[in-house]
Amino acid sequence: MKRTVQPKGAARVNYAEMSTPIGRIYPAWKGNTLLAIAMAETKDRGSWTAGDRPGSKVEALRRELERRYGPIALERADATNPTLKQLDRYFRGDVAAIRKIRVDPGGTEFQAAIWKLLRTIPAGRTMTYGELAQRAGRPGAARAAGRAVGSNPIPIAIPCHRVVGKSGSLTGFGGGLPRKQWLLEHEGGAPR
To answer: Which of 37, 157, 26 has its CA nearest to residue 97?
Structure first.
């Protein structure tokens, strides 16, 4: 049995591969706190699972976590953690379940403020980047709010998919616009 060599002082972080209606996702957590969710970007619903190479997603997940937290020991675990059970409940229809998930996205002060605000947008509702900037006390900073939304390391649990363009149109989402549309429909809403 091959042993994983852990860098001295490395934090132990677990990850799992979860099958969901939007394809495989790769959540990473420490204790009961979610640190990241990785997924492959896709252009259409038919490719949610096609071409998804788990090894590449796990390596990208490791790089992102080490960029934010320093050396880590990333270990695969099963999806029995209470945090992951909440994600599973979300995908099974309990869209309020993600509100109970503890998250640690890190980030700058402005990013943290934006990500905290994202968690206040109710399921089934959307908000524009301008409204988000206004609520963060930075009117006129819609583009900065958009960059913060786009750098959210914990999509779904920090529901960046609930942010739309000024006209109400769907705009970028790291997992692709078809996933964003699915998530909004799943929550009982659609772009306004």
So the answer is: 157
